[in-house]
Amino acid sequence: MTNSDTRTAAAGWSVADSAALYSLDRWGEPYFSVNGRGHISVQPQGERGGSLDLFDLVQGLQGRNLGLPLLIRFDDILEDRLERLHAAFERAIAQYGYGGKYQGVFPVKCNQQRHVVEELVSCGRRWHFGLEAGSKAELLIALSLIDDPEALLICNGYKDQRYIETAILARRLGRQPVVVIEQADEVERIIKASHALGAAPFIGIRAKLSSRSTGRWGSSVGDKAKFGLSIPDLLATVEALRAADLLGDLRLLHFHVGSQINDIAVLKDALQEAGQIYVELTKLGAPMGYLDVGGGLGVDYDGSRTATAASTNYSLQNYANDVVATVRECCEPHGVKVPTLVSESGRAIASHFSVLVFNVLGSAQVPAALPAGKEDEPLTVRNLRETLAGITAANSAEEGSLSRLQEAWNDAIKFKDDALAAFRLGYLGLPERALAEQLTWACATAIVERLPRGGAIPDDLKSLRAALAGTYYANLSVFRSAPDTWAIEQLFPLLPIHRLDEEPTRLGHFADLTCDSDGKLARFIGDGQAKPLLELHAPQEGQPYLIGMFLGGAYQEVMGNLHNLFGTTNAVHIRLAPGGGYQVDHVVRGDTNAKVLEAMEHQPGLLLERLRVASEAAIQRGDLKISDAQRLMDHLETSLRQTTYLQS
Ligand SMILES: *Cc1c(COP(=O)(O)O)cnc(C)c1O
């Protein structure tokens, strides 16, 4: 037995306690759990495949010179998400006897990384899974990657003439681009381009729904929404297409109620409204055939299954059922053939597959060691020592021990205030004041250690734990790797990926490497609402302490920025190997310092040269030894080749 095993056994802490504490059993299903060694275990194919020990995996990757922080992309999870999405729609279609099919697309804006999009296109081939583009650059990605003539290529976003002509011409390549009219003036450009080229694209219309929405992205619908056509505009567009003899190309109705729909009732309302518009469009003579319900399928980040920001009150299956059933209910009474259902789920597909692992560089905690008492200490200091001795001597199992702890804490506060007053009046020196503060913290620590785990605890004793909380310095930039935690207070599951068989005895939050006081992670999954401090372990000298941030595969990478010039982290693509274990499919090295400097138009070579000249001058003046000058230049050159993070 190692040291930590003994401590664990003594404290009666099990890995199941950790799973409960970090809500792992709620948000982690079916991909993440904790194994008997107290490490996070990843089941990249859910319950159908093998598992990997995340801590061992990270060590194996570090052995391949892939330093932390490290973004690990589990391509099996990406594929599994696609399978679940399609299986959910297939089940719903069978259950409701829906006479059409489902054919999804991935919104590229959610994660444009080449290996990610390529993986999705290749895994999605068996369902003719397509892509959604919102800009010319994304259109370029989509056009070049999709070569399945049945897969849809939904073109959203603002479109100029060149965008539209590109889409029309791409049809000749055997692609299936659908140009979605999002703004009233786009129809004129489409008509112009179609006449000029003598061909038309598949046309879609995005409707601006009036159904209510909630949540962070609630303003994506309603009269003030940025995109989509109001009903009068929609009718005018249909007539303009008819007049230009293009109504026969109107194939798709699109709507999008915003990202991370928390409440399924919002979706149902939108579906009913959109379903009726679809029916009306067919009555107006458009051939139609596709109903695109947009994105918004939510992710249950905190595992609470509630209609709150970090959660959803529905499952993937509930979602698919509602889409299928509602659309059928709209079409059937009117004898309209049900459409092929399209969805543009980004978050729900791409969140789970990537895990960010970072190391803790150190922690600022209340000082632990106390200097031994001396004969001639001032009275306030002696009083504090006695208070501490009283606390440590107390038997916490004894009747009335809580009220004695409370009393001791009141005393400690009083003596500390005395010490401060004495310092202000010049009766106490700086070393004695430091001692008084240290003793006060020692009293607090000793009290917290003696508090019972459950039961009613007086408020000011309870808050002592928080007051003793520490800052854990994290080797990452929040602005680069978890921008939404800062921008929109997004909650991601965060927890150590090892030592989960050991009780975390401390509370803390994470501060990142940037010189920005916003650069912190201080919102964690709590009971009912997010909490500002997380249960963590005391760092061990010489041992790594590794933290995982989960469910961050959507939006974080591209929204991340270069604040303080922290660049992308190393990233790897992992697959379960057929014979057990894992294989590293791709390695994407993080930005080097040279690269981030170049991004700001600096020339690394020129910077080096200036410093070389400066060090030559220092050598001439006799201020710098040649060997030290060489060492300085070596450090600079090496740093330029390395990633921007702290090297262990
Ligand atoms: C952003 C966006 C999506 C993706 O939304 P998710 O919440 O990630 O599913 C889909 N469609 C459109 C039009 C979007 O703007």
Which hetero compounds are present in the coordinates?
pyridoxal-5'-phosphate
Low-pLDDT ranges:
1-10
From the alpha-carbon coordinates, what is the Rg to the nearest angstrom? 30 Å
CATH superfamily of the domain at 96-344: Alanine racemase
Number of beta strands: 21
Which structural class do you get from the secondary structure elements? alpha/beta
Oligomer: single chain
Mean pLDDT: 93
What this model shows, in words?
- There is one protein chain.
- The longest helix is centred in the middle third of the chain and has 24 residues.
- Strand 1 and strand 2 form a beta hairpin.
- The protein has 648 residues and is an alpha/beta fold.
- The protein starts with a helix and ends in a 7-residue tail after the last helix.
- Strands 4, 13, 14, 15, 16, 17, 18, 19, 20 and 21 form a 10-stranded mixed sheet that branches. The protein has an 8-stranded parallel sheet with strand order 5-6-7-8-9-10-11-12. Strands 1-2-3 form a 3-stranded antiparallel sheet.
- Helix 8 crosses helix 9 and helix 15 packs antiparallel against helix 16.
- Among the domains are: 249 residues, Alpha-Beta Barrel (TIM Barrel); 88 residues, Methane Monooxygenase Hydroxylase, Chain G, domain 1 (Up-down Bundle), CATH 1.20.58.930; 34 residues, no CATH class.
- Helix content is 42%, strand content 14%.
